[in-house]
Design goal:
- Chain B: This is DUF58 domain-containing protein.
- Chain B: It comes from Acidiphilium iwatense.
- Chain B: InterPro entries: DUF58 (IPR002881).
- The complex is a heterodimer.
- By secondary structure, chain A is an alpha/beta fold.
- Chain A has 23 helices and 39 strands.
- By secondary structure, chain B is an alpha/beta fold.
- Chain B has 9 helices and 10 strands.
- In chain B, the strands form 3 sheets. Chain B has a 6-stranded mixed sheet with strand order 5-4-3-6-7-10, sandwiched between helices.
- The longest helix of chain B is centred in the first third of the chain and has 31 residues, at about 5-35.
């Protein structure tokens, strides 16, 4: 759509008439000469006049100056190509803008389109109508006729709202505006979503043009389901469309770190899709919401409703003895181990399951089948069941167990048995109990045995020193079942009187998702805003009966977000409270334009004036040369130097890595991994710069075989199951890098489930990938890194070497692997160090730690600094050991 | 302030001149000292006090001329000759007009300053040799202690004094028409006196380093000359300047003056040596 060329200020063009006069004026006025006193003037006079060149402005200079003059006149006249008029009529414009949830994802583009319409309206004036009610429940209403500047300011202040537009109120607003202001021309910036009442609203607005993004871009995240095994099922709804929809979704923790990423694929023609997010139990517990990456919008956020949890523990004891008896009762120690602030109830299983408890603790209780069914449902809804063993359950096990148990009691160190009481070895790193300190000097004298024939290692959360499982656990629905295979009092073990027991119980009772409050009034705790952030709820938000929450439509009175009371919190997601998105139908008579398809005026005035300015500066240079003030040669040399300077600046002959010590990472081609490597090394470089005397430049990504690796002291190579083996040249380059003193750090982000460390199960193919990619490298014989090696004390004294994960062994070259100096050319680990170092621009960690023990990130950073210092100084720190001997020899 | 009148103006000019002269005087003394340390003779036998040589008695030598002490040591009679030490008058004439008071670059000596430097240095040498120096048309010959300072002060005097006899040392740029120069030399009686003519020129006058459009102004109030491209006429100018210098050399030689050319960017020492050699009496 192009229009004719026109001028913003045509009167200025009259200046062109002056050009002929200017021509004669300029021709008559030669360039001003330089004055120079010169005594032998007589000699000059005697020179023949023909040899004194004529005093006249050169024709080309004259043309240049006339050109500059005409360009200046043209530039100020402001030539522009104005698009053809979009808006018929002459009266003010009524600009209706959808700002409901469906418009939030591309709201800036909508505002930009609205700005263009305001520009087009020019002096006609604009009345604005935002179609969604605001957080104070102010109904939509049209403004009065605004000037261009007022309208642009009002547009800048407009925000998307996290609820749908109110079409009934919109209709009333349009009618009111039409009676108030005459001769209104309607324009509608639509969200493209079908809604009841939309047809009548459009009919009343009678828009001359509809500006709308296609409805196929709308994404609505439905509330996630929890699978039987505890995995999250992310659900997405879109408008039915011809192409396949591929939409990534992120599982985030409370601080916004992404814990997992899944891809939802929706078949052509379908409107719904799902993706499974399976996370290790410890991580799954930290997920608080699912979000769609990209511009945050309320439709792209699904909260998990576990933000506010309160422990309500129900205690049941089996047998007939008094469970509360001092020091001996079955519940005596558990009551004292529960976290402070927990409310405690007792009763039957049936009473407790209905009473809104979040955790039920069964101390040696034999369950009847109906009770088992009740407890299953209780766990599916997010409850936690913790069972303790005892003489009653030892003789006859029931169905509510994480794994099959053997009948009978294993007695250790009793009067009639051989063996001695076994200590508790610790908690499995991949279990929800990972990170708890291993109980010290706790011994178990009796226990129930899990059936070793059918034992699933994943259900073992803690073992005795001899490897026998002592705590079994499994995730069930949104909840958890844990079985401690010994008693809750001191009859079978001294665990209940150990220092770590309250921490263990505290960890266990918080494992569940918490139970949604089923009754009472709920009030909004946090509300989503139009940008998908959790904020303080608006003034219009009103409490609602818990029973009615599932059906309530989202509105300013009931904004999406977290709702709850003392019993817990529940999520109110847009996805569960608006109808499935459907594309709107617009009247065929109204032209529909895309958001960015609105034509804009093209102005040439500034460009022409810039050209005139350039020519003027050229003219200045020429005048200087003509007057002899600037030698042509000098000017040429200057120009050449300028060009050469620009050239060298562009060519960058010296690689930046040669100017500053720089860490490097191997580019894997996977943007997500590369960005984490880069962010990790950047954060590490910053820390090294702060903590040590080394000065590191920003890290660089390299491709072995094509980049010059000799510039870097340390090369970080993230290897995942998807990593392909390097080519021949890359292998040779890496070998040369290691041989010439570089430190190659190979890291995997976890490993298979059978690996050691808390990263087990995160990247099952990593070990094979590691074997593949290092096959062609000259890796020296390896040994396990211990606290005695130089690498463990090059800067900080570190005993373990965690990254994002902890516990996986780290390997370095065995002594003499490369040469006599004993510096290892390679470090191989599976703790995802870069993931621990990486921070975003604000300095917040990018990735969550697992198990997340206090100080894990700090230790990861310490180890990172040690790595850098090892790469830079080699075994210097080991040589320091000899200093006392050297000093002694010197003083002798 | 009232106009100080012609006399006052002259005094002011003289004062400013004196201000420039005293450093010139010092420089001239230093220059002369570096060129001719000590008293110098005429390098031939004559009326003087210094021993020159012994020679055999010739016919016509009076008996008093015989050095008996020397003769008594041998069979022959010797005459003791003394070196000829003449007292001669050197007449300095330094052109002073606006063109001479011009230097092409800031900080460079003007032609007049260089001419005065050379002139005073020659005068200093002359005083060393026991000679007397006059300023043409300005000052009668002076000699003896303090004569150089008096001579320098005399440079500011108006041209009132009667011309005196003596060898000429002419300093100037000699850019006038050759005919005028020859007439001027003749009017000074150069043919009878002999001496040197030192043409002092500024390097800009010799090299003509100008480019582009230049409006050339005379040193005095003359009509300026507008040259569009100075580099175009450089060759023609060099030809004209060479012709002028040739004409000056011809005029000087016709007037029995030894022509010496000097540029103000050249060191003054060699020029002074050349002037001194030219002023030596012909053997």
């Amino acid at each position: 759509m192009t229009g004719a060329l026109s001028f913003a200020a045509p009167a200025v063009l009259a200046g062109l008439l002056l050009l002929p006069a200017l021509y004669f004026l300029l021709r008559a006025t030669p360039p001003a000469p330089r004055r120079q006193v010169f005594p032998p003037l007589r000699l000059l006079r005697e020179i023949a006049p023909t040899e004194r060149s004529p005093v006249r402005m050169p024709l080309w200079l004259l043309i240049l100056r006339l050109l500059v003059a005409s360009l200046v006149i043209l530039g100020f006249a402001g030539p522009e190509i104005v698009p053809p008029r979009l808006l018929p009529g002459t009266g003010p414009i009524l600009l209706a803008i959808d700002n409901g949830w469906a418009a939030a994802a591309d709201f800036p583009a909508r505002i930009a389109a609205a700005r263009r319409i305001v520009e087009q309206a020019g002096r006609r004036g604009v009345a604005l109508l935002a179609t969604a009610p605001d957080a104070a429940e102010q109904k939509p209403h049209a403004t009065g006729v605004l000037t261009r500047a007022q309208a642009l300011a009002a547009l800048g202040a407009m925000d998307a709202e996290p609820w749908p537009s109110d079409r009934i109120a919109d209709l009333a607003a349009v009618r009111a505006a039409r009676t108030r202001i005459h001769d209104l021309t309607g324009v509608y910036v639509a969200d493209g979503l079908a809604q009841p009442g939309l047809g009548r609203f459009i009919a009343a607005l009678d828009p001359a043009r509809i500006v709308a993004a296609p409805a196929r871009g709308i994404r609505l995240l439905k509330p996630p389901r929890i699978a039987r095994d505890g995995a999250l099922i992310a659900r997405l709804a879109v408008v039915a469309q011809r192409d396949r929809v591929i939409q990534p979704v992120l599982a985030e923790n409370a601080s916004g770190g992404a814990l997992a990423r899944a891809i939802i694929t929706i078949r052509p023609g379908s409107t719904k899709g799902e993706a499974r997010i399976g996370l290790p139990a410890a991580l799954a517990n930290k997920v608080v919401k699912l979000v769609l990456p990209g511009r945050p919008a309320p439709g792209g956020v699904a909260l998990l409703g576990s933000g506010a949890r309160r422990v309500v523990a129900g205690l049941v004891a089996g047998g007939t003895a008094n469970p509360e008896q001092k020091l001996l009762g079955a519940l005596y120690y558990i009551r004292r181990a529960l976290p402070s602030g927990a409310s405690v109830r007792t009763g039957t299983v049936e009473q407790l399951a209905e009473s809104g408890a979040s955790t039920i603790i069964l101390a040696d209780v034999r369950l009847r089948p109906p009770e088992i069914g009740m407890l299953q449902r209780f766990m599916d809804d997010g409850g936690v069941v913790i069972r303790f063993a005892g003489p009653l359950t030892a003789t006859r096990s029931d169905a509510l167990v994480p794994d099959r148990l053997l009948r009978g009691v294993r007695a250790l160190g009793g009067a009639l048995t051989t063996g001695k009481p076994e200590a508790v070895a610790g908690f499995a790193p991949a279990s929800p109990l990972a990170g708890l300190p291993a109980p010290k000097s706790v011994t178990v004298t009796r226990q129930i045995l899990a059936d070793p024939a059918s034992l699933d290692p994943a259900t073992v959360w803690a073992r005795l020193a001899d490897g026998t499982p002592i705590i079994l656990g499994v995730r069930q629905g949104r909840g958890v079942l844990a079985d401690v295979l010994t008693t809750a009092n001191t009859a079978w073990s001294d665990w209940p009187i150990a220092a770590g027991f309250p921490a263990l119980i505290g960890r266990l009772v918080r494992l569940g998702m918490g139970e949604a409050p089923k009754s009472g009034m709920l009030k909004p705790l946090r509300a989503l805003d139009g940008a998908g952030r959790l904020v303080v709820p608006g003034s219009a938000a009103q409490p609602i009966e818990a029973a009615g929450l599932a059906q309530v439509p989202v509105s300013p009175a009931h904004p999406p977000g977290l709702w709850g009371n003392v019993h817990g919190a529940v999520a109110l997601d847009i996805g569960g409270h608006v109808p499935l998105p459907e594309a709107a139908d617009y009247p065929a008579t109204v032209p529909v334009t895309g958001l960015d398809a609105l034509p804009r005026a093209r102005r040439f005035g500034p460009a022409i004036l810039a050209a005139a300015l350039l020519l003027l500066s050229a003219d200045l240079l020429i005048s200087l040369i003509l007057r002899g003030a600037l030698r042509l040669r000098v000017a040429a040399i200057g120009a050449v130097l300028l060009l050469a300077w620009g050239g060298t600046a562009r060519a960058g002959e010296i690689p930046p890595a040669a100017l500053a010590t720089t860490l490097a990472y191997v580019k894997t081609g996977d943007a997500a991994i590369d960005s984490v490597s880069k962010a990790g090394l950047a954060a590490l470089s910053d820390t090294v710069n702060q903590e040590t005397a080394a000065r590191l430049g920003p890290p660089r990504g390299v491709v072995p075989g094509t980049s010059n690796l000799q510039l870097y002291p340390l090369l970080y190579w993230p290897v995942t199951g998807a990593t392909t083996p390097p080519g021949k040249h890359a292998c040779a380059a890496l070998d040369a890098f290691m041989a010439s003193g570089g430190l190659l750090v190979i890291d995997t982000d976890g490993g298979g489930t059978d690996e050691q460390g808390s990263g087990a199960g995160f990247d099952p193919g990593a070990r094979e990938a590691l074997r593949r990619v290092t096959a062609c490298l000259a890796i020296p014989p390896l040994k396990r890194l211990t606290a005695n090696d130089t690498l463990a004390h090059t800067f900080f004294l570190t005993r373990h070497f965690p990254g994002r994960f902890d516990g996986a062994p780290v390997y370095i070259a065995a002594k003499g692997g490369r040469d006599a100096d004993g510096v290892s050319p390679v470090v191989i680990g599976a703790n995802d160090w870069a993931g621990a170092w990486a921070t975003d621009r604000a300095g917040a960690p990018m990735r969550a730690m697992l198990p997340g023990t206090p100080g894990q990130r700090l230790h990861a950073t310490w180890f990172g600094i040690n790595l850098v210092m090892y790469a830079l100084t080699g075994t210097y720190k080991s040589d320091q050991v000899q200093i006392p001997a050297i000093l002694r020899r010197l003083s002798r | 302030m009232a106009d100080p009148g012609p006399a006052g103006r002259t005094i002011a000019t003289a004062e400013s001149l004196a201000a420039t002269l005293s450093p010139l005087l010092l420089a001239a003394q230093r220059l002369a000292a570096s060129t001719a340390p000590g008293r110098h003779g005429r390098r031939r036998a004559g009326a003087g006090e210094q021993f020159w040589q012994y020679r055999d008695v010739r016919d016509g030598d009076s008996l008093r001329a015989i050095d008996w002490r020397r003769s008594a040591r041998g069979d022959r009679l010797y005459v003791r000759e003394r070196e000829w030490e003449s007292v001669e008058t050197l007449v300095l004439d330094i052109e002073d007009h606006p063109g001479m008071r011009w230097g092409s670059a800031r900080g460079r000596e003007t032609k007049w300053e260089r001419a005065v430097l050379l002139g005073l240095a020659v005068a200093a040498l002359a005083f060393e040799g026991g000679e007397r120096v006059a300023l043409f048309g300005r000052m009668q010959p002076v000699g003896g202690p303090g004569a150089l300072a008096r001579l320098a002060a005399g440079l500011a005097l108006p041209t009132t004094a009667k011309p005196v006899a003596g060898r000429l040392a002419l300093f100037g740029d000699f850019l006038d028409e050759p005919g005028l120069i020859a007439a001027d030399l003749a009017s000074r009686g150069a043919t009878e006196r002999g001496g040197v003519l030192v043409q002092v020129l500024d390097p800009a006058e010799c090299d003509f380093p100008y480019r582009g459009r230049v409006l050339f102004d005379g040193a005095a109030s003359e009509k300026p000359e507008d040259i569009a491209r100075a580099e175009d006429i450089a060759n023609a100018y060099h030809a004209r300047l060479t012709a002028q210098r040739d004409a000056v050399v011809a005029a000087a030689e016709a007037a029995r003056l030894i022509p010496i050319f000097h540029r103000t960017d050249a060191p003054p020492g060699p020029a002074l040596a050349a002037i001194r050699a030219a002023l030596e009496p012909v053997a």
